[in-house]
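Inverse folding, one chain.
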């Protein structure tokens, strides 16, 4: 995933090393399943089969189901079918090897999440048109959430996957975890801080261009036009997959619509514009 992952367990107990190893293993397993940069990944094997229902693993089915559901919820501001557009804009390089990878099936123009059909009873996914699925907005969060389940018995722990955080229980001082939110224009500075416990904190920013975390931090997948109203969007939620994907959606929607989406879903968030104006949900507050 091109991400440094760190895990901190406040009070190591018997069995913690095994649990941490299992937690790390999920990142490798989910990447191998959900990456679009390997021809043999389950995601890419799905992407080259157009017009037929394909049986997939529960892991891939859940990732795609979640992504499509969120696409429906956001009216396409978050859309997992943007892989073809990402390829055409140069976001097609495997982060470790530098190898350029393209789907051998050329994506049709104008595809969207509506071209993905899921059958929960059979566990199949059907792509109605040629398209390239990209799960970059959900896979890392899914890995964080799955790793967190491995560590639940140890209660107080923190997972940091390249800035996608899950903070469980309390910090070493016995208080909720304090999270600094990166200033989108000043390296090394924080623009806000929040205290959380048993929650994820995820941020999407236009400073994340090299990682291709968003299709293009200035492109709206609904219309292909620039989305330049936001510099960073931070979401606090019960899980990293939800918070990460909604941070992407809020970035695309813009400050007012993004905050309205988060409030409608009962989540907390902060959106910062390029002019450093701050828009917050009602429950989002700074700490000293």
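Residues assigned per position:
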């Amino acid at each position: 995933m091109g991400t440094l992952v760190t895990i901190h367990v406040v009070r190591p107990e018997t069995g913690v090393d095994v649990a941490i190893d299992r937690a790390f293993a999920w990142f490798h397993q989910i990447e191998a399943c959900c990456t679009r940069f390997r021809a043999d990944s389950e995601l890419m094997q799905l992407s080259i089969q157009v017009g037929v229902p394909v049986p997939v693993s529960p892991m891939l089915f859940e990732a795609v189901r979640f992504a499509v559901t969120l696409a429906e919820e956001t009216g396409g501001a978050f859309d997992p079918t943007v892989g073809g557009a990402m390829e055409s804009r140069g976001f097609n390089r495997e982060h470790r090897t530098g190898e350029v990878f393209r789907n051998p099936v050329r994506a049709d123009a104008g595809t969207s999440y509506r071209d993905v059909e899921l059958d929960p009873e059979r566990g199949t996914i059907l792509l109605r048109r040629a398209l390239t699925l990209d799960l970059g907005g959900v896979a890392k969060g899914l890995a964080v959430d799955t790793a967190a389940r491995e560590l639940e018995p140890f209660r107080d722990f923190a997972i940091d996957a390249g800035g996608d955080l899950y903070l469980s229980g309390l910090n070493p001082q016995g208080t909720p975890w304090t999270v600094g939110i990166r200033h989108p224009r000043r390296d090394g500075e924080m623009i806000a801080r929040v205290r959380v416990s048993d929650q994820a904190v995820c941020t999407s920013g236009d400073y994340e261009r090299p990682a291709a975390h968003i299709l293009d931090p200035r492109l709206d997948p609904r219309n292909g036009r620039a989305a330049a109203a936001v510099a960073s969007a931070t979401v606090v939620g019960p899980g990293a997959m939800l918070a990460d994907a909604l941070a992407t959606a809020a970035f695309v929607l813009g400050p007012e619509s993004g905050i309205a989406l988060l409030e409608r879903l009962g989540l907390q968030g902060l959106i910062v514009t390029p002019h450093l104006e701050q828009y917050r949900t009602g429950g989002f507050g700074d700490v000293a």
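Residues 209-215 have pLDDT under 50 and may be disordered. Helices lie at 16-34, 42-47, 58-73, 83-88, 139-151, 240-253, 255-264.
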